[in-house]
Amino acid sequence: MKAFKLVVTGVGHVGSYVLADAMKAGLFAEIAVIDVLENVARGEALDQWQATGVGTLGGTRVHAGSPADYADADVVVVAAGPSILPDPDDPTGEPDRTLLTTVNAAVVRQVMGEIAANTSDAVVIFITNPLDTIVYIAENEFGYPAGRVFGTGTMLDSARLRQFVAAACGVSPTAVSGYMMGEHGHTAFPVLSRLSVAGLAWDELPAVFGDGVRLDPEHVRRQVVKAAFDVLNGKGWTNAGVAQAAVQLARAVLLDEQGIYPVSSTLRGEYGHDGDVALSLPTLIGRRGIERRIPVALDAWERDHLADSISYIQQAMAEAGTPRSGSLVAPRAGAS
């Protein structure tokens, strides 16, 4: 079996969780850690390396790295840049991830430039917010191979959706099949027309599981979006779920799982958009990264929310100074 290498770029609250989860995954022979604060990168790497002496983390070699480590990486997970913070004047509020647009657009342009200068082979998975705008910049401004850059998207939002529906029905989340689409943020929406519990469609659930299942899609959407801010306003950041999502995507790539996940990437003809927005929709993930996007048919409510989400993302893209689609560097074809 090939000895896989991971690079984790940015090891703050989120990236340090990615590193810890990756160490436990049993997938990587080597992990390089990069951070603008070099002492933090060294400290995190040393901390994890020392933990291998306990015996449960195997023989993973972990070390502080540099951009040169991108050259032979199989997967790069980017969590660089500041995270959104709770509003001290509104402790139960829902601060907008797009507030990070200007500063993190500059961060991703530096990081992705360093990645592209050293490799065109690694699959690059972004976590940095505002995620969809960040993914759009990384995918489209550097001529990187098509399909090899994407974001964790609404994977975490979808996990929250499944938790919410499972609690309403009194079942395990593993019994729920469903996902969120659109922006990873305020305008994300549940695709309830495709959700099921043990094969039962959304509108069948009250008859089986009782009136506690509220069919109003806007209520579901609001509760799922609010769930993120319950964590943020409680401890100051969110990191556990999205780190798990990133490592799960890395596994899907390295093991060529051909799994379907709602990740963020640039639309290429789906829903009437071609190269002008990045967002989350069901996507087949394998060894080449994105194998194909799956633009499921949506009902009227979902189509309206998709349009709202696209408009919102494009506002953030404009703030980030993304080029018009016609002036983009064409992505190179991915390796076969």
How are the SSEs placed, and which strands pair?
Elements: E1 4-9, H1 13-25, E2 28-34, H2 38-51, E3 61-64, E4 75-78, H3 101-118, E5 123-126, H4 131-140, E6 149-151, H5 155-169, E7 176-177, E8 180-181, E9 189-190, E10 196-197, E11 200-201, H6 205-209, H7 217-235, H8 240-254, E12 259-268, E13 274-286, E14 289-293, H9 300-319
Parallel strand pairs: 1-2, 1-4, 2-3, 4-5, 5-6
Antiparallel strand pairs: 7-10, 8-9, 10-11, 12-13, 13-14
Helix pairs in contact: 1-8, 3-4, 4-9, 5-7
Task: Give me some keywords for this one.
6-stranded parallel beta sheet; globular; 14 strands; alpha/beta; disordered C terminus; 3-stranded antiparallel beta sheet; 336 residues
